[in-house]
Amino acid sequence: MKPDIKGLQNFIDEDAIWKTVQDTAGTDAARIHDILEKAREAKGLTLDETACLLHVEDPQLNEAIFETARTVKQTIYGNRLVLFAPLYITNECGNRCTYCGFKATNTELERRTLCAEEIQREVTVLEDQGHKRLLLVYGEHPKFGADWIAETVQTVYQTISQRSGEIRRVNINCAPLDVEGFKKLHDVGIGTYQCFQETYHTDTYAMLHPSGHKQNFLWRLHAMHRAMEAGIDDVGMGTLLGLYDYRFDTLALLAHAAELEKHFGVGPHTISFPRLEPALNADITFNPPFPITDAQFKRLVAVLRLSVPYTGLILSTREGQTMRRELLDLGVSQLSAGSRTYPGAYADPNYNRPEVQQFCVGDNRSLDDVIQEIIHQGYIPSWCTACYRLGRTGEHFMGLAKAGFIQQYCLPNAMLTFKEYLEDYASDTTRAIGMPLLQHEMETLPDTRRNIVTARLCRLEQGERDLYF
Questions:
Q1: CA quadruple 126, 129, 133, 139: dihedral positive or negative?
Q2: Which of 38, 278, 333, 367 would bridge with 338, disulfide CB 3.0–4.6 Å?
């Protein structure tokens, strides 16, 4: 069945965005400093102001952008960093996206869709590592619809490891559905619905998607509207960097976010910014038409933090260890760790298999190894799911965040989930460096809150689990 796009309009004004990109080139230093002064108020930036910062090449001005981003990130998010893992359910796909290893024409790819027992096996492995938050990833194939996706979500939630408990939040990355389909996902308790437009430039989009449902730009563009109409409060957006000019796509993404806020009172819960990585039989991934350098990429992340200060920024394992380390301070608030990018990968002892991956992974470290580095950087790893489970989502969450109240919940809940990890999963090395960090963060809490957190940490030591504010 073809998507019904009757009445859908393209609200991305390409000419206006390009004019903004061109008109802001060569912005002088005084203007840049004025924008950064405004950014420190953590109230966001306009598209014009964002474009000005994206043009900056001067090393001193770049450092000023980075320093402002560090300040804003610390003010809003503190020292906590949310961790998750992607779980690929199927790589069967009817689309022919030229940049994806899962495309329908890739006859060399080993196709696989996990059955319920295989999903349970994957989830158990992830639970035993310490994961509590998963992102389920699906190819788009006509034989898989909302009912089947909902069943896989239920399977994940129902899988409880005898050793280590359950998954507490399931987010979804799947093809756009109609409103009724999204309602089915909402009814089984998904968290964030994630869908990337890839590029907002319509001619480029058409060239990159020669066939399949994904060929329909407008159906995909309005996916977030339908998800939110269905009651899904939190949505995640992104572009695939390297397909088109990153300045255009970044401004278009922010225009998309503004459109959602205009209609629903809240923009995206998260934004992702993956870069093209090599994939089997996807030539464009080895020679991106619009490559983005490391310097441009770092500046982009910092500028996003200033432009949408209360939106979560997600960094995947497409990036290598060094880049991931540098970007934590500049704006990233959520990090995938120990990721594997094909169905059945976590239970596969020979997981480094490029012939079945969607793309090449840049950071192959285990979850515990990633956590050790995070601790050394002074971050508290968090698997908190309290806001989602207590209804602090969507517009309610953003209202709390912008008022500063969210810090009353986020750091204490991060500390409680980190304590669980140290008690149940951590290596001796991680536990030895993690406990002092936990104690240090305790000392930063107000006395009343510290006493409550201390009592709950003691309850965790005595065997209770899943405590939160």
A1: negative
A2: 367
What interhelical angle do 428-442 and 407-424 show, nearest 10?
A: 150
Please say whether the beta carbons of 220 and 197 come within 8 A.
yes
Kindly provide the residue ranges of all beta strands, DSSP E only, lying in 198-239, ordered along the sequence.
235-238
Distance CA 167, CA 123 (A): 8
Tens digits of per-residue pLDDT, 282-298?
999 999 999 999 999 99
This prediction's pTM: 0.94
Strands (E), 91-185: 133-138, 160-161, 165-166, 169-173
In angstroms, the CA 265 to CA 259 distance is 9
User: Which of 173, 198, 220 lies closest to 289 in space, CA to CA?
Assistant: 198
- Pairing status of strand 169-173 against strand 270-272: unpaired
Q: How far apart are CA 86 and CA 358, in angstroms?
A: 12
d(CA 440, CA 22): 48
Phi, psi torsion values for 357, nearest 5 degrees: -75, 150
Dist CA 196 CA 209 (whole Å) = 14
According to CATH, what is the number of the domain 74-389? 3.20.20.70
DSSP classification of residue 274 = P
Amino acid at 40: R
The span from the CA of 428 to the CA of 176, in Å, is 44
Pairing of strands 334-336, 80-90: parallel
Range 316-339 burial, b when 16+ CB lie within 10 A, else e: bbbbeeebbebbbbbbbbbbbbbb
First to last CA, the chain: 45
pLDDT digits (tens, 9 = 90+) for 180-210: 999 999 999 999 999 999 999 999 999 999 9
List the chain domain ranges: 74-389, 407-461
Contact criterion met (CB below 8 Å) for 276 and 241: yes
In the structure encoding, which two tokens stand for residue 74, read together?
A: 């610390």
Which tokens sit at 57? 């090449």
Separation between Cα atoms, residue 176 and residue 138, nearest integer Å: 11
